[in-house]
Hints:
Radius of gyration: 17 Å
Number of strands: 2
Distance between the termini: 24 Å
Structural class: mainly alpha
Shape: elongated
CATH superfamily of the domain at 8-68: lambda repressor-like DNA-binding domains
CATH topology of the domain at 8-68: 434 Repressor (Amino-terminal Domain)
Amino acid sequence: MQESSLENMRNRVKCRRQSLKVKQQELADVLGISRQTLSSIERERYNLTLSLAYKITMALGVSSIEELFSFEDEEEELPDSFDWDDKIGK
């Protein structure tokens, strides 16, 4: 299975922010980041941390990170289970 990369990360931050009629600078101030950083996030050019993704989610009143952030290849099938005992030699 191929690991997801930043290139596959998609977000709906700009759409949600605009639907709330919030300006970039206003949201950036709430988040404690620069407007330029927020712009980069919205254009999917910034590798944000999980902590920042969570802050954005909460600030925009969204119930889960997955509603704003996703990987393009999420439909990729995952195994039903994983045998950890086999991998660690038990």
